[in-house]
Each structure stands twice: as structure tokens, then as C-alpha cells.
Amino acid sequence: MEALATYLHENHLYKAPLWVSQALVQFGVASFVLLIFVSPFAGILSFLERRIAARMQARIGPNRVGPQGILQFLADGIKSLLKEDLIPTDADKALFVLAPYLVFLGMFTSFVALPFSSKLIVADLNVGILYIFATTSFAVVGLVMAGWGSSSKWAMLGGMRSAAQVISYEIPAGIAAVTVILLAGSLSMQQIIRSQGPHPWQWFIFDNPFTLVAFFILFISLIAEGNRAPFDLPEAESELVSGYNTEYSGMRFVFFFFAEWANLYVMGAIMTTLFLGGWQIPGSLEKLAAGVAPWFPQLIQLLVFQIKTLVLVFLVIQLRWTVPRVRMDQLMNMCWKYMVPIGFACVVGVAGWMILYPQGVAKMRYLLTAMAGAIIVYYFYRVYFNFKASRAELKLNPFV
Amino acid sequence: MAIHNQEMLLNMGPQHPSTHGVIRFVVKSDGEVMSEAIPDVGYLHRSIEKIGEICDYNGFMPYTDRADYLSAMNANQGYAMVVEKLLKLEIPRRAEYLRVIAAEFNRIISHILALGALAMDVGAATPFVHALKEREKVNDLMEALCGQRLTYNYVRIGGVSYDMPPGFTERSLAFLDNFEPLMDEFDRLVGENKIFIERCANVGTISRQDAIAYNLVGPNLRASGVDFDLRRDMPYSVYPELKFQVQVGRGERGSVGDSYDRFIVRVREIMQSMKILRQCFAQIPEGEVLGDIPKTMKVPKGEAYVRTESSRGDMGYYLISDGTDHAFRLRIRTGSFTSMSIIPKISQGMMIADLITLIASLDVVAPEIDR
Amino acid sequence: MTFQEILKTLQDKLGADVVQPTTDLAGDPFATLPAEKLPEVLNFVKDDPRLQMDCLSNLTGVDAPPDHLDVVYHLFSYPLRHSFVLKVRIPKANPKVPTAEKIYPTANWQEREAYDLLGVVFDGHPDLRRIMLPEDWLGHPLRKDYKEEQEYRGITTTRPSLLYPEQ
Questions:
Q1: How far apart are CA A157 and CA A148, in angstroms?
Q2: Residue B28 DSSP SS3
Q3: What pLDDT is attached to residue A163?
């Protein structure tokens, strides 16, 4: 990268100081790498969502393009690129065109601060979590621009709804994050992860009952921020014919959904970092892995991070196809009357806990972990029981 | 500077993913809260009543299928009954039982589709697909019975057209055995879901007086607390011999007559229909299925008005005949038409999201409104 | 109560305006009355405790050639489970009937349909406009002497037949 920067400085940008070309090269490489990671991921996530939805609905889902239909997103992307680029006559051209890019920007810039492993992070800011919340709220500007610029009443209604929803749910999300920040003592993403440990009872979620509640508040708020069901009123297909997306077609339309699926990943990543221990692996495993190759522990940490994130992403996808939509006033009700007060109570509770037990209470951690384990076992038992009761056939082969 | 407030005029146009069929609503709203929602119907008007004056009596039967395509057997049965009333025909017992079997199957699939559509409009897309899966199985049964999956043209004036194929009883009973736990699961998955209850309870409450004054019929009327079912109170065909319970809305999760009541009344009616079907299959006698009728029917001069309990309420057929081989005036009075007429009154002060729930819970089907 | 008993109750109260025409037609019997008496009769059948007809089950119009229109009212009582049929005959030249909307709100849409398809004008109806057909349609299709226009808003309504091209 240094060589590239010096080459650029000498041959092209000799009028500006060296740091300009250095910065440009760094931005360029970082963006390129992130784009390479994010784009196929969002695409495959779109395919995965359709497949999971189909399986839940006793259908098969896309399985034609590529092995098991994995390349479906490529077909969708090519199709959208080839579509006619329609801009309504009455639309405000500048706003209409700019809106998808702003939404994409809001989502993409938050990838910069995500800690994929202990060394794989594009920018280890010491205000990491604050930066992520700030940039994800940038998407609101894009949504309102899309709604207004489409010059259609349906789109405007969807845009207004979306703006109200996202802005409102920033607050419980931030409050829930504050509980973790109190425990970790820092805003930096890597520091938060380092304050946790590899074992489940060392994660922040099981630290005390207040953080458990804060996890669920964060979960719900992030779903609401990402415009996912049950909070997908702004893009409600059955009510507003797709809300702020109504007038968009072709690649611009895909941009919105691209941002939504990538946002799913950011949601999962935030939750993993803050509450589930991020990329932490046990020390013994790390020593074992270091014996194989110096970069092997990094790989394992990356895998651990991805698995935790993907479990949460899967949960969010499943939630979309199970639960109905919440109405707008019920949504606002829930945020301001329930989540914000409970969030504040959690912050006060965590602060009090830290004063009373500066090292935490090990028994509480074990108790909460055991409780969670019991609930998960009960969940699987209920699934098995329902299978038996409905006399359905259990097809474990997902590749049918 | 004075702030200028103006009501927004929204057009939920004829093409819309969630109005059930081609209906248009002109919504005057102030942001999210509506002041009025005025329906505009007539996009599906095919002048079936005028065609009834040209077609002969037998040939009109397929048109009644298209009047309410989701439960076509009931529509067929009503028309056959009104002509038979004027002709004073006696129908073989086996034919009556077959008509009731077909009608109750249709009631099941029509209700489950309505419930699935209600769930989908409220936001949960999965129950709709499960409902369609069950509908497919019944469609296969109907195909075995009469050759058609949607518009059956099965009932004839004087009986039905085909007898049950061999093995039909076993297949139907197997389907019913399979369907009961699924219906239970549907009830628990959708009906006890907190978000669904919050979306539907106390939404679009139609009081008892309003329901009777606006001539709401069928499950909508029963959900508002009126204990009336044509099959029990003015029985026709073989319903006097069948035991079932009439389901009335009791306001379990909200007030009496809200959308949740309409939902739960339909769920329970499906269970009752399954009971009726089992009794029919047990009691059906042997015999022929089509009485002796002349090829060209000369119906005596006169008029008759017959109401049958279709899935969407009572469907009234009013026939005036003038002695020739086609009707002089045929009028079909459907439940969806009157359900639509109550929407301008009930929708005042509701939110737009609630309007969708209201329409879906009233179970309007566009061809029934416009005929 | 049977048809004859209801008829007798009506005739006791309202005189000989409500008659049953003596013809021997098959099917249901009906009673006719002059158009002006309609609100009075409908109010009576709704409120009288012996009749209690709280539901207007069907309101429709019939074309009675050569120059009359009939408006038919099917009434039904939920508490007492009996029904009744009333008919009003009006001349085609001046097809006016008082509206039943104030007594039975369900008549709102049914009368709009009768107006749309048959041309019966209901006095006092709050919103009498076409319901099924477009607002600028000409003519009333359910009449026996209805001739379709040759074109609607510049679009022709007839096409040359494919089966019989010479017609």
C-alpha cells in the first residue's frame, strides 16, 4: 500500500502533499475489500431469506440458478440492471436519484468499525459503537428523501412512517448499548470484546439480569431500525404498495434492499460484539491454533464471530415470516412507553450492580447461563413435540 | 402566518395487493388517521343478472359459479333451489346429501382462505401459504367429485350431476382427520399471537344494531352477537337432520363485533363444518343423484326468493319467471355487497392500517359485490 | 306469522292500500302498495311489536313492460323469523319512489344499484349516483328495451364477429 501511495503521489498527485494520496489509497483499498465482502454476502443473504421463508411455508424456494439456487442473487442483479430506469415526471430528480445512495452509504460506512477478529478491523476507532450508531442513522435521511422525492402520496406516507420509526428506536438502542459501555468502560469495539470472555457465562448478556433485559431491548430496537418485520410498516406490501420504494424500479430499487440485507448483518454484528462476546475464543484453543499457523487463530476468531452473527441473522429472518406487523401507533407506543423507561431502568440497574459488585457475581452469571441453556433445550423439545402432534413428516434434508 | 391544513385524498386503487379483488377506495385522511373511506365498486360488473334473462335455466348454472368463485357450490345450490321451488321439484335424498357435502367443503376452504388472507394483510405471510396448501387438498377432492377445481358447475336443477367416485369417502375422511390438528395449530399460531390480537381486537367494531340495520349476513352478523344461522333457523335441504352449533361472537379479546371476533367465528365454523361433513358421510343414503327433469324447463309463472347460507352470509336468489324457458328477472343478493356498504360508516376515525384489517376481516370478495 | 296474517295486520292499520293482487302465480305471494305510502308502511312494519321486521333483506327493481317499473322489498324479522314481500309499481315516465334509506340504512347501496341499472329515482336519497357503471354511462341496462350505445368515450363497443364475419 505504501508503494502504491508513493507511486500515486509522484506520478499523478504531485501537487498535493503525500498524505493525500496515502489517504486515498487507504480509503480505496479498504472500501474495495469491504465491498467484496459485503456484496456477495448481501446477495446470498437475500437468497437465504427466500429459501428459509419457503421452507417455513412448506414450499421449496429458488433452487434453479446455480447449485441449490445460490447464484439467484446474481440473476436478480443482472435482471435489475437491465430494467428501464424510470424517474417519475413529477419527481424531484436530485432527491430521487440521491436517496438510494444515501441509504447505502449509511449502511456501508458502519462496516468500517466492525471487529471481525482481533486484528481484522478496518478502523479501530476509540468511539467505535458511537460511530456505528451515528452512521446507521444516516439512512433516515435517505429514506425521507426517497419518500418525498417520489412525489407520490403513498411513498411520502411510507417515508414519514419510516423516519418516525427509525428515529424513535435509536433511543432504546443507544440506551441498551450504554449498559454494555458501562460494564466495559470504553466505547471502542475491540475493548468491549476484550472485556468479555470466550465462555458463555463470561459474555455480557449473562452478566446480570439487567443486561439480559438490555439485550432484548437492543434486539427489538435494531429490528425496528432495520425496517424488518414485525416493524416493516414503511414497506408494508399489503398496505402501502411498498411505501417509500413504490416509485423505484431496476437497480435503484435493488439498492434499498441491498442496504436492508447488509443492515441485517450489521445488526447481528452489533449484538454479537456488545453482548455475545464477539470473536473471543478460549485461550487453550488459541494456543493450539497458533501452532498450526500464525494466522490460524485469526481465522478461528473470524469464524466464531460469523457464526454468532449468522445465528442472530437467522433468528431475525425467521421472525419476519412468523409474526404479523405491528401498527404504527402501537409501534410508537411500545418505544416510548415501554422500551425507553425499561432501558433507563436497566442503565441505572447496571450502574448500581457495578457499584455493589465491582467484579460481578459469578453465581449470577452461572445461573443466567443455565437458565438460557434450559430455555434452549425446552425450545427444541417443543419443536419435537409439535412435530409429533401435527403428524408432519420430518424432512431433515434441506437440499431437496 | 396561518398554517394551512388540508386533508389528503388517497386512492387505494383497483390494483392493490390487499383489497380482495378489484375494489377501489377513496380515502380522505389526515396523515395516518382517516376521516372517511369511500368504496368505489363496479370494476368487476359482468351483468350476470342481465345474462340470466337471456340464458335458459340449465345453462345459467356456470354463471352462478362465477358470482362467488371461492365457494361456488353454495352459489350453485341457491340457484338450483330457487328454480326447484317454482317448479315444485322433489330432489333425491342422495343428491341433497351430496349438495351439503360439497357446500360444507366449500365453506371450509373459503373460510380458511379468508383467514389466511386476513393474516397476510395483517403482516404474517406464512399462514396464507399454509391455508393454500390445505385448499389444494380439497381442490383435489373436488376434482375427483366433479372434474373442476374452482368453478364447479356441479349442482343441477333437480339434483347433482355426478355421484361420488369410489374411494371418495375414505379420502375425505382421511383429509378431515389430517386437517383437524392443522386447524388447531392455525388457531394457536395466528389467533393467540399477541401482535395479531392487538391488530385485530377492538378494530372495526360493528355493533349489533348496525349489523342488522346494514343487513350484514353470515359470519359477520354472527360475530356481532346476533345468534342467527339460516341452516338452523330456516333450514333447507337436509340440515334438519344434522347436528351442529352456531358460533356467535362473544368479544373474547376485545369488544363484541370486532375483527378478532369475525376471525374466531370463522375458525370455529370450520370446526363445525368438519363435524357436519362427518355426519353426512355417515348418513348418506343410496339412491340416484339426478331426478327426472325435462330437457327444456318450462317454469310456471311466479316468483320466489330463496336464501341459502353461503360462506359469506346468506345469498338470496330472487327469480321472477314468466312461463318461458328463461327467467324474466333474476336477482342475486350477496353478502359482500352489504358488507361493503357499512365501510363508510365504520371507517371514520380509523387508521389506514386498520382499514386493511377491517376489509380483510369482513371477507369481501369482489365478484360477489359486482356480479 | 304467515303471509296472510301479516297482510291482515297491515290492512287493519293502513287501510285497503296494501293489497294482494289476486292472480294465481306459483311461488311466493306478495303485496302491492302505492308509492307514496311506502315510508309509512316501512316504519310501521319496523316498529310494530307483532311484526318487528328489522331487516330489509333485498331491495331490487324489476322492469315490467311496457311502461312500468316495480320496486320489490323483501323484509325479514330476526326476532320473529317471518318474512314479507312488498312491491311498488311506478310508471316509467316518472319513476319516483320515496327512499327507504332513513328507515333501513342498508337501502343506501341497494337503491343506488336500482337507480344505476334500472333508472328508478329515489326521493330523499342522500347520494344517488351510479354504483356499478361509470358515472357517465348512458342508459339503464337492466331495462328490457335497453340498447347499448355504439361507443363509449370514443371506444367502440362492437367488434366484427370472428365466427360470422358477414354479420
A1: 9
A2: strand
A3: 83
pLDDT at A238: 46
Query: What architecture is the B45-370 domain classified under in CATH?
Result: Orthogonal Bundle (1.10)
For the beta carbon of residue C23, count every other beta carbon within 10 angstroms: 8
CATH number of the domain at C126, please: 3.30.460.80
Distance from CA of B171 to the nearest CA of C (A): 39
Q: Cα–Cα distances in Å, from B286 out to B95, B98, B164, B165, B289?
A: 10, 11, 11, 13, 9
Contact A165, A233 (CB under 8 A): yes
Using one digit for the tens of pLDDT, what is the confidence trace for B75-103?
A: 888 899 988 888 888 888 899 999 999 99
Rounded CA separation A65/A75 (Å): 8
Cα→Cα distances A136→A124, A126, C108, C112, Å: 17, 18, 53, 54
B68, three cell numbers: 362467488
For chain B, the structural domain boundaries read 45-370
Distance from CA of A320 to the nearest CA of B (A): 8
Distance, first Cα to last Cα, chain A = 47
List of E strands, A318-375: none
Pairing between β-strand C155-156 and β-strand B313-321 as defined by DSSP bridges: unpaired
A324 with B122: Cβ contact below 8 A: yes
- The DSSP code for B164 is P
| Beta carbons within 10 angstroms of residue A116's beta carbon | 19
Of B358, B35, B344, B332, nearest to C127 by C-alpha is: B344
C-beta of residue B38 within 8 angstroms of C-beta of residue B344: yes
How many angstroms separate the CA atoms of B176 and A340, rounded? 49
Check if the beta carbon of residue B338 is closer than 8 Å to that of residue B368. Answer: no
Percent of chain B with pLDDT over 70: 97
Q: What residues have CB less than 8 Å from C133, skipping those under 6 apart?
A: B42, B45, C116, C117, C141
Q: Do B16 and A241 touch (CB under 8 A)?
A: yes
Q: Which residues contact C29 (CB under 8 A, 6 or more apart)?
A: C3, C20, C85
pTM of the shown model: 0.87
B to C CB pairs, distance under 8 Å: 87
**Contact between A390 and B352 using a beta-carbon 8 Å cutoff:** no
Nearest to B175 by CA among B117, B115, B105, B245: B105
Which subunits have 3 or more CB–CB pairs within 8 Å of chain A?
Answer: B
Contact C33, C89 (CB under 8 A): no
Provide CB contacts within 8 A for A396, sequence distance 6+.
none
CA A328 to CA A281: how far, in whole Å? Answer: 42
Q: Please report the pLDDT score of residue A294 as a whole number.
A: 78
User: Mean pLDDT, 10 residues at a time, over chain A (400 residues)?
Assistant: 71 72 81 84 87 85 82 87 82 84 86 84 85 86 83 74 86 91 88 85 86 92 84 64 68 84 88 88 79 81 90 90 84 90 92 85 85 91 78 58
User: Which pLDDT score, from 0 to 100, does residue A236 have?
Assistant: 61
Retrieve residue C161's grid coordinates: 364477429
Domain membership flag for residue C163: no
Neighbours of A274 (CB within 10 A): 28
Q: Are B35 and B275 in contact (CB under 8 A)?
A: no
* β-bridge pairing C26-27 and B327-333: unpaired
Domain around C136: 3-156
- Residue by residue, DSSP assigns B324-340 as SSBEEEEEEE-HHHHHH
- Residues in B closer than 8 angstroms to C55, CB to CB, are 212, 215
Domain count, chain C: 1
Hey, are the CB atoms on B213 and C54 less than 8 Å from each other?
A: yes
- Report pLDDT for A396: 58
CB contact under 8 A, B303 and C74: no
Q: Which residue has the higher pLDDT, C6 or B316?
A: B316
Cell, residue C87: 312491491
What is the chain B residue with the closest CA to A55? Answer: B126
CA gap B141, B145 in Å, rounded: 6
